[in-house]
Amino acid sequence: MTTLSDPPRESFRLSMLLNDTRYRSYTFQFIALLCVIALFSFLGYNLVKNLQAAGLNISYKFLGETSNYDINQTLIDYSSQSTHWRAAVVGVLNTLLVAFLACVTATIIGVVAGVLRLSKNWLISKLMAVYVEAFRNVPVLIWIIIIFTVMTAVLPQPRDFRGENATASMWFDAVAFTNRGVYIPKPVLESGGMAVVIVFLLSIVGVFAYRRYATKLLYATGKMLPTGWPTLAILFVPALLTYFVLGKPISLEMPVLAGFNFKGGINILGSLIALWFALAIYTGAFIAENVRAGIQAVSRGQTEAAASLGLRPGRIMNLVILPQALRVIIPPLISNYLNITKNSSLAIAVGYMDITGTLGGITLNQTGRAIEAILLLMAFYLAISLAISFIMNIYNSKMKLKER
Amino acid sequence: MSDTHQHSIRFVRESMLPEQEPPATERGVIKWMRENMFSNIPNGILTLIALYAVYAILSGLLPWLLNGIWDAPSIRACREILDGQTGGCFAVLTERWNQLLFGFKYPNHLYWRPTVAFVLLFVAIAPVLFYNTFPRQMLIFTALYPFVAYWLIWGGSILVPIFALVGFGVGYIVYSKYVAQSFAMGFFGGIAGALVTWWLTGMIPVEGVLAMEAVPSRDMGGFMLNLILGTVCVSLSIPFGIALALGRQSDMPFIKWICVVFIEFIRGVPLITLLFVASVVLAYFLPPGTNFDLILRVIIMITMFASAYIAEVIRGGLAALPKGQYEAADSLGLDYAQSMRLIILPQALKISIPGIVNVAVGLFKDTTLVSVISMFDLVGMIRGPILASTEWNGVYWELLGFASFLFFITCYGISQYSQWLERQLNTDHR
């Protein structure tokens, strides 16, 4: 059966490929496919010819060879005798380390600055506006270089800490800011130290369980349990008890001046700190704007309705404004995290050995395997960003307004 | 007055009292400060802390700025003049001014050319930015500007930009001839016409015809390089971004798939890796013997990068339009190209302006990354030749502060403009 709107059945003519909307899209797609194939075969043909002319081939064997270079900051064991693959893994871990640190710091800075920018205090809100504009409008590379310069050119040399009239001194005899990096105490786990750590982790779980129970009790019976001091108690009392019962199994190894440099403790390189703080304050300015927009997106009626129910300002913020604002804040927040991870590749400008510095820097220069190294580098960043956008999609679909 | 109360009340005031001034704490500066800075104790403490912070920053910064030395041949001479006092060594800016702006290889006697191009840039973008105040005829100059600017900055024979312009002209004529039949025919015909013209004119020898002294691309540097990369890549990436966004919204699965893969790939990798591709890998993929200069390769990569981001912004604008607009265009009998050109894109682009400006500002800031692949832009100049020179080794703050200042005024200006434009375009009645 045919309806009236059906076009008359004609026999197929060649001109219909261009003029008939039913077939035209196939023509276009076919042409596009041909163009893509032509482009790729052109590039591939050139690649093969160029590689032949240079006497090269595509192979990932170099990853198994000895790297022959040192990395000054590593999270896992690494020496110049390790393979290029190991160097790349060190780089990946360093990237993730600086990205994680910067994400946490940027969130704190951003939330504080965003909330303060909405403050009724004129001076504070103006100061925060200045912070946001100043940091958003200057390239992050310049911020990285500025902080790196502070870390290397302004901070005292280790030898300034020496002698009777030292020009520099350590903070609390524990933290030393030098131009070779910051030295902080290092926790040393002796026998039984692990137990304290485990107890502390368990207390964190306990805090969540307690809070959950309190909410449940509140909803079921209307009784309100205090959450402030029990949280602190659960968090610290068991861990401290185990610590003293087991005879102080965790000690701190202090950095001490030995020879021309500090020994002991953890050395955080200036390049890591420069990258960390530059990314944090730069992205913090963006996050502050997101937070401000999120809070302003909650209509004033919500605040007034909550106030008319008799809620106090703190509770209005916690129970009414924030849950609604978070829906607006979190998606751009996650894309800011993604930006931090991608911008951490600027490490190469200050010599911090992240994946761009190891695989895309020294390994590439030593082996001359440019295509392979850069493909691998891109694959790594692509994997991270796809993973993050996957998480974001899950979050978005979970937080979508349930509309009837 | 009546005397009703005469017996019950001793005194009734019959005239208004003159208005009194409000109490001192309820007016003027004091009231404002009390309400906006010291409304309660925590606020007061915050204000005091903030005041102290401002004082600490200004007391460090102002002497450094005001006491600065603007005329000295080297950092040692500068420190001698300062003689232990606080003060900036801004002499580096005056002494290396040209290097900071033009790079260290651009011929000294040709500095006037990029300067003229820079001034003309404002003439060219004025009718685009402030389309209500300037006459529309100025847009003709805007269309000519890229060719003028190319000739001014790179030099060489004037025939090169003229032939390029002729190609565009031929393309436009072919396009307007066929567009009445179908947009696709006009569009592809126009491209074919332009390509044929360029191919034909490419065979005409142009060496030395009406030529200015040519400057090779590798001699570009300083803030000029940032400006070139920023303006060229942003203006090129907008049409590409529109095409990608439309492709991603398209009903044709293959085209949509290509656009999605391209956009997600570019957005997933950092710009640095793309710049690495430009500097070390791209040469492998070009025919043997071709010698693309680095600046052109970088422009290609940054344009690809920016178009992916702009495509996502425009896609947001397309998605934000009510579905009724698409249906209305269809019901008028407009075909795809017409409905996009006349109904959808004008509205979608208007919504996307703030996003596009954000991308443009971000991109302009990202042009500093080219210093990583050893191009001497502003940051590259500062870190390379200037700080490494014996005269100015150690003048960090003056140089980095200057670079921040240049970028700040440019980016802040652009974002202020975009906010102004948003208010201008806000034609819905609220």
TrEMBL record, chain A:
Family in the record: Belongs to the binding-protein-dependent transport system permease family. HisMQ subfamily.
Stored Pfam families: BPD_transp_1 (PF00528)
Keyword Amino-acid biosynthesis applies: no
Record localization: Cell inner membrane; Cell membrane
Organism: Thalassococcus halodurans
Chief site of localization: membrane
Cross-referenced InterPro entries: AA_ABC_transptr_permease_3TM, ArtM/GltK/GlnP/TcyL/YhdX-like, MetI-like, MetI-like_sf
Record's keyword annotation contains Protease: no
Membrane-topology descriptor: Multi-pass membrane protein
Species lineage: Bacteria, Pseudomonadati, Pseudomonadota, Alphaproteobacteria, Rhodobacterales
PROSITE patterns named in the record: ABC_TM1 (PS50928)
GO molecular function: transmembrane transporter activity
Keywords: Amino-acid transport, Cell membrane, Membrane, Transmembrane, Transmembrane helix, Transport
Domain ABC transmembrane type-1: start-end pairs: 92-392
Any one Gene Ontology cellular component term annotated for this protein: ATP-binding cassette (ABC) transporter complex
Transmembrane domains' residue ranges: 26-48, 87-116, 137-155, 193-213, 225-246, 266-288, 316-334, 373-395
UniProt protein name: L-glutamine ABC transporter membrane protein /L-glutamate ABC transporter membrane protein /L-aspartate ABC transporter membrane protein /L-asparagine ABC transporter membrane protein
UniProt-listed GO biological process terms: amino acid transport
From TrEMBL, chain B:
Keyword terms, alphabetized: Cell membrane, Membrane, Transmembrane, Transmembrane helix, Transport
SUPFAM superfamilies per record: MetI-like (SSF161098)
An annotated GO cellular component: ATP-binding cassette (ABC) transporter complex
Compartment(s): Cell inner membrane; Cell membrane
Membrane-spanning segments: 45-66, 110-131, 151-175, 182-200, 220-246, 258-286, 298-321, 342-363, 369-388, 395-415
GO biological process: amino acid transport
Residue ranges of every copy of the ABC transmembrane type-1 domain listed in the record: 223-418
Cited PROSITE patterns: ABC_TM1
Membrane topology category: Multi-pass membrane protein
Annotated GO MF terms: transmembrane transporter activity
PANTHER family associated with the record: INNER MEMBRANE AMINO-ACID ABC TRANSPORTER PERMEASE PROTEIN YHDY, MEMBRANE COMPONENT OF AMINO ACID ABC TRANSPORTER
Family of the protein in this entry: Belongs to the binding-protein-dependent transport system permease family. HisMQ subfamily.
Protein name per Swiss-Prot or TrEMBL: L-glutamine ABC transporter membrane protein/L-glutamate ABC transporter membrane protein/L-aspartate ABC transporter membrane protein/L-asparagine ABC transporter membrane protein
Organism of this sequence: Thalassococcus halodurans
